[in-house]
Write a structure and sequence with these properties.
Helix content is about 40%, strand content about 10%. It is an alpha+beta fold. It has one domain (about 5-75).
């Protein structure tokens, strides 16, 4: 099954998803300012309680740095995706 990029883009541009993306970008910038992450270091800033599950977007207690691999393993499968 081929990806529907038009549908994905429409979903990514919804106001809720824009706010979540902004929150993720702010969290990364906050950790970069503290020197905990750098561009290309293979680390990602993770929300301990996911935004999709009601996690805080702004609380410093809700974010931490983990490896890219660990963050991707943690993520639930997307709706409609077969497998996992």
């Amino acid at each position: 099954m081929a990806r529907n990029y038009k549908k994905e883009t429409k979903w990514e541009d919804t106001p809720a998803q824009v706010k979540n993306r902004e929150a993720r970008n702010r969290a990364r910038a906050r950790m970069a300012k503290k020197g905990k992450v750098h561009k290309g270091d293979g680390k990602e800033v993770d929300h301990i309680k996911m935004l999709a599950e009601g996690g805080s977007k702004t609380s410093p207690k809700n974010i931490h740095v983990i490896s890219r691999h660990d963050n991707r393993v943690k993520q639930p499968p997307h709706k409609g995706r077969k497998g996992k």
